[in-house]
Amino acid sequence: MKPSFSQQTGSVAIEVIAFGILAPALIVVGALQILADQRSHLVAQQAARELVRMSVLNELDSENQADIQSNIAGEIGLGIADVRLDVAESTRSGRQLITATATVNGATEVARMFGEK
Q: Contact, 73 vs 80, CB < 8 A?
């Protein structure tokens, strides 16, 4: 008995749609999401480093911090509310420790540096 291929045309179409279109599309969407998360982490890390450097050099004020925040939001297409920058100063062993925390689209990075009193 010969198999009848005329009855299997529907399953071939389903396989082409599932494995030829949907699976690659899901892979691309997943890869783009991973890249967006990685970009947020990199931007947050760079922002935290820049904040701590500017704070050590006494070049950071509230106006500069707001400018940095709006520049970051504009460059990566986020709202101002998605970018949060904080700088804190403390003293350890008689030295000034500056801690900058940057949160960009849920990705948080921290940078620390000792400064002069």
A: yes
> CA 26 to CA 22: how far, in whole Å?
6
Strands 83-92 and 95-104: antiparallel
- The answer to whether the predicted template modeling score (pTM) of the entire model surpasses 0.90 is no
Give the residues across from 111 on adjacent strands.
100
Q: Please report, for residues 38, 95, 105, the alpha-carbon distance to residue 108 in angstroms, rounded to integers and kept in the order given.
A: 11, 25, 8
Give per-residue pLDDT as tens, 11-45. 777 888 888 888 889 999 999 999 999 999 999 99
The backbone torsions φ and ψ at residue 72, rounded to the nearest 5 degrees and listed phi first, read: -60, -45
- Give the whole-angstrom CA distance, residue 44 versus residue 63: 19
